[in-house]
Write a structure and sequence with these properties.
By secondary structure, the protein is an alpha/beta fold. It is built from 10 helices and 12 strands. This is 4-hydroxythreonine-4-phosphate dehydrogenase (4-(Phosphohydroxy)-L-threonine dehydrogenase).
């Protein structure tokens, strides 16, 4: 029996609509697993969802309201605020605390980095980075879909800081994370050049022959199979050589083609942890919150990954 925690993310987003849409699936999975929605005290609820004060041994789908949130808040869908940003962040921290107690896997529903920062959480960069801080180890974002797996070597940093971040990148830990991931099995890896046309032999930048070459050497020593540097503008074309895993130099270099090709079925998987954390490959969608048109495909994909991971490696 697996234990799965779900952090609620921003309560003014589409998240509760996604949970409502997947309620029958969550109840069905709850016949064999323990599933807990970690939520703050507010007016967004799921009808017929039992609320507990702590995890129990019995399977089922429940909610747990974390303590210390003060008075119950009243939120309006599609109207984020400092209060909803703080609630989303506190839900994440509470889910992390429970994960450490239970050893559960974790689904993080979308939150807004902007509103978390506005709530006073200075330096917040995202789920992946917060998990790295909480567990005191490097973590790596892998976007995983039906056909593509992409790891951006730098995540939520300004483009001007990418090269500096790559100089500090922990290639050895990336190799360990790839090797130990239950979602990757001896992957054939293609790595993208950082510069246009993979640097044109040094004519358009030298990062391919310095930073990337050094990093790839470390990964090869870990017995991983890599080819590249690939020209990023053609690596994902239909007639290009396919790879099990792509390493992108920065966030948009890898995530733009991934989202175009994988659509709503993409899942964000955090590598480097002793448990599995997944998240839908979309944001808070405040603009459509409350309109009844939110697509639960991403959350369904997350649930499928967690319950099938031991029998269906990528």
């Amino acid at each position: 029996m697996k234990t799965i925690l779900i952090s609620e993310g921003d309560p003014t987003s589409i998240n509760y609509e996604l949970l409502e849409s997947t309620f029958p699936l969550l109840q069905s999975l709850g016949k064999e697993h323990r599933i807990y929605l970690i939520r703050g005290s507010h007016n967004q609820t799921l009808p017929s969802l039992p609320n507990l004060t702590a995890p129990i041994d019995a399977p089922g789908f429940y909610s747990i309201t974390w303590k210390g949130g003060g008075k119950s808040k009243s939120f309006v869908l599609g109207k984020p605020s400092r209060a909803s940003g703080k609630m989303a962040y506190d839900s994440l921290l509470s889910a992390i605390d429970l994960q450490k107690e239970t050893g559960a896997d974790l689904i993080t529903l979308p939150l807004s980095k902007e509103w978390v920062v506005k709530a006073g959480i200075n330096g917040f960069r995202g789920h992946t980075e917060t998990l790295a801080d909480a567990y005191k180890r490097p973590t790596f974002m892998m976007m995983s879909g039906e056909k593509l797996n992409v790891i951006p070597l730098t995540t939520h940093v300004p483009l001007k800081d990418v090269v500096r971040e790559l100089t500090k990148f922990n290639w050895k830990e990336l190799g360990r994370a790839i090797t130990q991931s239950p979602y990757l099995h001896h992957p054939k890896i293609g790595y993208l050049g950082l510069n246009p046309h993979a640097g044109e032999g040094g004519k358009i930048g030298k990062e391919e022959t310095t930073l990337l070459k050094q990093g790839v050497s470390i990964l090869r020593k870990a017995k991983l199979s890599l080819e590249g540097p690939l020209s990023a503008d053609s690596a994902f074309l239909p007639d290009a050589k396919p790879y099990d895993l792509y390493l992108a130099g920065y966030h948009d270099q890898g995530l733009i083609p991934f989202k175009l090709l994988e659509g709503k079925k993409g899942v964000n998987i955090t590598l480097g942890l002793d448990f599995t954390r997944v998240s839908p490959d979309h944001g808070t969608a405040f603009g459509i919150a409350g309109k009844g048109c939110a697509d639960p495909t991403g959350l369904i994909s997350c649930l499928e990954r967690l319950v099938e991971r031991k029998t269906k490696p990528i």
